[in-house]
Amino acid sequence: MPAVTLARSVLLEARRGGLPWLAAAALALGLALAAFLSQVALTESLTLQAALVAAVLRACAVFLIAAQVISSTLREIQDKGLELMLSLPLSRSTHYLGRLAGFVTCGLALAAAFAVPLLLWAAPGAVALWGLSLACECALVAAAALFFAMTLAQLVPAMAATIGLYLLARSIGAIQAIAAGPLAEDSLAGRLARHAVDAVGLLLPRLDGVTRTAWLLYEAPPAGAYLWSVAGLVLYTLLLIAAGLFDFHRRSV
Amino acid sequence: MKREQRPLAIVPAWVFILLGITLCAQIALQAARPSGAPAAADLPPPPGARALRLASFGEPEATARLAMLYLQSFDFAGADAIPYARLDYPRLIGWLRSILELDPRSQYPLFSAARIYAEVPDAARSRLALEFVYQEFLRDPNRRWPWLAHAALLAKHRLHDLPLARRYAQAIDRHTTAPGVPLWAKQMEIFILEDMNELEAAKIMLGGLLLSGTVRDPAELRLLKERLDELDARIRAGKR
Predict the structure, then answer these.
(1) Are the C-beta atoms of A106 and A8 separated by less than 8 Å?
(2) Chain B interface test: which of A151, A250, A252 (most B C-beta within 10 Å)
(3) pLDDT digits (tens, 9 = 90+) for B9-65
(4) Residue A110 and residue A166: Cα distance in Å, rounded?
């Protein structure tokens, strides 16, 4: 299948580009930081290690997958590889989805590699839920990075847009809470601002509710809430894929 | 940067359908979430000041203010409920303490404690907030006295706890040294003593204040002397 071949080429590029080494470095960084800080902790040294490793690895996974997708896509555009691929008897959808499948597989591999060390501190069930959530988060970031890289076709704007979307999605809950606070002005401008924040909230995934360190430290989330959160990630990934396909089909290459 | 685009008709129908369905589902999913301010029970345990400082990435002043905006959104319920009355106050005070430690010169946490959280119609919660103001006042009296003065007024008029009000007023008198602290704040204890019918003590304090020479304004001196005479008269009347 052409899509599988494309996905394999993406995985091969990631392996040869040193992504496994970067993942290993991120693992070493997280573990070393946790080991160092646990030496100076007065109490809860084990939970401190788990919390730090989980938070650092989550950030590293997101950054690595975004950087990998954007650099690979832009290199293909700038080297005219994209034009060559489009001259082949493949539909644009197959090309886009095949490459995305490769990037999503990279994200899944990163999530699995980063979840394994957490078994040192947390129960396997909690780690599995955390890892699955991280895998879905990485898939979402891969879809967003591919969309922005294809649309903006420049490194800095694509990276800024991807990281900006990610950070906004992680903080939109707190922003909405602040906007609904007691000192919010009841003027027209105040109401417009609140509605604007709510409108932005409708168009963003809620990343503040997924891949929670609390799942590892305290208790696993209720099944309903967990499925709801993961379904939100999957849905938003599909939305990004649809938007990316729409833009790619209209692209004049 | 303008990019040439192919016509819309070139986009396959299933991409249009997928885009429409996922966009509608995303909006519906997010709209189905409960909105508005978070409830009292949602208030998480307070972070330590060090954790907040780490999270501030070198911007403690901005982080302290953002954290206050975040904190004040909890339990600001609808019009039929009393705001903040169901909050876990020990937890809330932990937040206020961490935020104040992050930016000790900010008045926001003390303003909120004295003017918002201490004014809930729940004496136990109100006392916790007032005690927080008192403890933090002792760390920087010359800057934080206005909030303790307000706390003394609340203790007197709302809690009707004159010994507590006197304790706060006494602290202002004893611990503030800056020239900018007004005399009315330093004299609060005298008036509270009068309300407690501790006339002799009030007289001694007022006499001491007049003798200390800190009051120089003639009108204010005249007023305080009249007050001293009134106290004398009340004491004599009480002895008869």
Answers:
(1) no
(2) A250
(3) 888 999 999 999 999 999 998 888 766 566 677 788 888 887 788 777 777 887 888
(4) 18
**Cβ contact A241–B76 (<8 Å):** no
- Among all residues of chain A, which has the CA nearest to that of B65? A178
Query: In the 3-class helix/strand/coil scheme, how is B57-92 assigned residue by residue?
Result: CCCHHHHHHHHHHHHHCCCCCCCCCCCCCCCCHHHH
CB–CB contact B18 A245 (8 Å):
yes
Neighboring chain A residues of B15 at a CB cutoff of 8 Å: 93, 242, 245-246, 249
Is pLDDT above 60 for B78?
Answer: no
CB contact under 8 A, B38 and A177: yes
* Calpha distance A161→A150 (Å, rounded): 12
Query: Considering chain B, what percentage of its residues have pLDDT values greater than 90?
Result: 29
Residue the block writes with tokens 């890289």? A149
Closest by CA to B60, choosing from B49, B44, B47, is B49
- What interface predicted TM-score (ipTM) does this complex get? 0.72
**pLDDT band, residue B69 (cuts 50/70/90):** confident
> A83-97, A123-137, A176-190, A233-247 — which is least confidently predicted?
A176-190
Specify the amino acid at residue B78. G
Q: What is the pTM of this model?
A: 0.68
Q: Search chain A and give the residue with CA nearest B36.
A: A180
**Half-sphere exposure in the Cβ direction for B52 (13 Å, CA):** 24
Neighbour tally for B240: CB within 10 Å: 4
Interface test with chain A among B5, B8, B15, by most A beta carbons within 10 Å: B15
Q: Evaluate the CA torsion angle A114, A116, A117, A122 in order and state its sign.
A: positive
Residue A210 DSSP code: S
